[in-house]
Design a protein that fits this description.
By secondary structure, this protein is of the alpha/beta class. The chain has 7 helices and 11 strands. α5 packs antiparallel against α7. The relative contact order is 0.11.
Length: 285
């Protein structure tokens, strides 16, 4: 039986690191270092809330495991080279990793992506699935290459529900067991250099960051599209929402209903939605 691998983990939250760590350890491997992506882009200031999340990760950090807070891809690569890694497992990292990082671990880098690739390549697959009204999403574990989410697939499964009121916490309940199962399968295949299926050339789509126009409600869209727009923002945070002008007042739309409900009626291209929760927008916003 092959000996366990020394593994580095890259992710974005304490629960996510724990899921990756526990799955690797259960498969007989040794996670030795974590790296937290503290900013959306390399060489940029830390994101709002990054210090709080880093503190949560630190508080849950297993004994003997190091935590890196890289400010650049080059710094990440230089740091990882000192750990003699066999594998790097990534779940939720916004930077494009250069070849120097991809080639540092003996068996390369595994990336876990929250879609059935090649659908929704890019940094925001869950947001686009909600935006498009998908009933569910999937998990893909693939070999990372120098492009975004294009490498050969080692494990893949769909069927993770996206209910109307989905939140990060409720999504994680359904996503976590699928992620663990698919990562376990991929860990069993990754040391075989020939393992992995090329991604289909059909059904390719890109899930980029939300464009500025998406931050305002456009009533020429259908009621369902507006409702899903509001759901997308609600997933990002309960106090977030697109803006709309209703009866001369600018509102941040926090929740909507497609069926008659107590609230403000907003007529869209094909039918109305009812704004059931909102907040006024300050004049200087």
């Amino acid at each position: 039986m092959a000996s366990g691998m020394r593994i580095g983990l890259i992710s974005f939250g304490a629960a996510e690191f724990a899921a990756l760590h526990e799955t690797c350890a259960a498969a007989g491997h040794d996670p030795v270092v974590y790296a937290f992506s503290r900013s959306m882009r390399p060489r940029k200031p830390a994101d709002e809330g990054a210090a709080r999340v880093a503190g949560e990760i630190t508080a849950a950090l297993p004994a003997g495991v190091d935590l890196l807070l890289p400010g650049s891809s080059e710094g990440l690569g230089a740091s990882l080279r000192g750990y003699g890694l066999d594998l790097l497992v990534c779940y939720g990292f916004s930077w494009r990793l250069p070849r120097s990082v991809l080639q540092t671990p003996r068996y390369g880098v595994l990336n876990i992506h929250s879609s059935l690739l090649p659908k929704y390549r890019g940094p925001a697959p869950v947001l686009w699935a909600i935006r498009n009204g998908d009933a569910d999403l999937g998990v893909t574990v693939h070999r990372m290459d120098e492009d975004f989410d294009t490498g050969p697939v080692l494990a893949q499964q769909g069927g993770v529900p996206l209910p109307d009121d989905v939140t990060p916490r409720s999504l994680w309940t359904g996503l976590s067991p699928v992620l663990r199962e698919q990562l376990s399968i991929a860990l069993g295949r990754v040391r075989d250099p020939s393992a992995g299926e090329p991604q289909s050339v059909d059904g390719i789509s890109y899930a980029g960051l939300l464009e500025p126009e998406f931050f305002a409600v456009d009533t020429t869209m259908t009621a369902r599209q507006v409702h899903n727009q509001v759901r997308t923002f609600h997933f990002m945070g309960p106090s977030l929402g697109p803006t709309a002008t209703v009866n001369g007042h600018r509102l941040k739309v926090l929740r909507t209903s497609l069926t008659p409900a107590d609230g403000i009626r907003l007529d869209c291209a094909d039918a109305p939605v009812w704004i059931t929760a909102s907040a006024p927008v300050a004049a200087d916003d």
